[in-house]
Every structure is written in structure tokens, then in C-alpha cells.
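Progress note, sequence design subtask.
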């Protein structure tokens, strides 16, 4: 039995070699390499994968393209992912991110809400929806989503930053700064918080 199990594991490792290499590139931050790797899997190795795993290739490709600011290409990748699994929250969220970056906020909101229907306890997805709502000036709705995200996960930095930008837009620079600094204490590279603090400084200097 042990020999048979080892044999199966070795065969799977061979079948999934390209798949594993692509994800290794992604998690190493080598996004262009990951795009190339995932595209190679799609063109040459897709039939080696179990049908239930194939969506992950398109999801990985889309995620890599998002990191490279290739938003239209990411939408195409996530469309293929959703063709395999129409209700997959990872694919829905990925496409929502890409649509938001393309400033197609209505579509992004629809996708983000559908993802939350499938995975309502995702703090990061709640924060994403909040930011999409901010972009549409739906600040009260956005605040509600940020509050829900933080109730699910107190360390959700994108939600903290979201509350910060809402406070800033409402003229409450102190609360805004507090939220941005709280987010940066957890993740010093949080882009929204760094940009938010910059906006506060510019607003203060212009007075």
C-alpha cells in the first residue's frame, strides 16, 4: 500500500510539475515568470490536470496579471476561470479587482457582491467591496462594509485604510490619520494608507 501511494504521489508530481512551478513563481513575486508559466500550462499541460483543478490555472494567471497592472488581460483570465466555475469566489473577486482598476465600478460592485454571497465571512472581500463603493462616492455603504470587515478580522488593513479615506473625505483628518497609521503599523507598505497620509499633508500645507 505504501509503495502504491508513493507511486501515485510521484505520478501526480510529474503531472503537476508545470502547475506547481507557476504557483511557485507567483508566490516568489516573480509575476512575469508566473504569467509565462501559467500560459505554458494552459497551452501544453492542461489535460494532465484533474478537471477540478483547472480553474486554478486561470485564477493564478489572472492574479499574476493583476500584479503586473495587466487589467484587461486579467479580466480575460478570470472569465475563463468563471466559465469553469461560475460561482467561485476567488475568480469573482479577482475579476472584481480587475474591473475596479479599469474604473468599471458598477460591474466590479456586482462581482464583489456575488463573491460575498458565496463567501460572506471574507474580510478582504468586504474591504474590496468597500473600496469599490468609495470610488462611487457611496460612503455610508462603504463604511458599513469596512466595519463588517474589521468585525470579521480586526487586522484587515485595507478596511482600516478605507475608514481613513472616508474620514478624510468628511474632513476629519485626525480620525483619518489614526486609521492610516493603524493600518501601517500592521503593514508598512499599505498603499492606500501611504497615499492617504500624503493627501492629509498636502491638504494641511495648502491651507
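Output:
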Amino acid at each position: 500500500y505504501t509503495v502504491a501511494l508513493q507511486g501515485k504521489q510521484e505520478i501526480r508530481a510529474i503531472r503537476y510539475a508545470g502547475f506547481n512551478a507557476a504557483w511557485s513563481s507567483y508566490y516568489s513575486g516573480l509575476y512575469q515568470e508566473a504569467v509565462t508559466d501559467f500560459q505554458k500550462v494552459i497551452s501544453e499541460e492542461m489535460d494532465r490536470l484533474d478537471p477540478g483543478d483547472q480553474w486554478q490555472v486561470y485564477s493564478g494567471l489572472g492574479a499574476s496579471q493583476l500584479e503586473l497592472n495587466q487589467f484587461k488581460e486579467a479580466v480575460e483570465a478570470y472569465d475563463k476561470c468563471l466559465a469553469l466555475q461560475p460561482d467561485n469566489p476567488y475568480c469573482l473577486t479577482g475579476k472584481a479587482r480587475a474591473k475596479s482598476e479599469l474604473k468599471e465600478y458598477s460591474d466590479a460592485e456586482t462581482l464583489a457582491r456575488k463573491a460575498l454571497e458565496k463567501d460572506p465571512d471574507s474580510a478582504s472581500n468586504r474591504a474590496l467591496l468597500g473600496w469599490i463603493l468609495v470610488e462611487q462616492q457611496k460612503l455610508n455603504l462603504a463604511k458599513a462594509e469596512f466595519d463588517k470587515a474589521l468585525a470579521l478580522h480586526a487586522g484587515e488593513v485595507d478596511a482600516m485604510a478605507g475608514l481613513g479615506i472616508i474620514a478624510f473625505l468628511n474632513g476629519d483628518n485626525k480620525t483619518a490619520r489614526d486609521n492610516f497609521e493603524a493600518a501601517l503599523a500592521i503593514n508598512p507598505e499599505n498603499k492606500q494608507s501611504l497615499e492617504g497620509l500624503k493627501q492629509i499633508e498636502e491638504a494641511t500645507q495648502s491651507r
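The chain has twelve helices and no strands. Work on this subtask will continue into the next period as scheduled.
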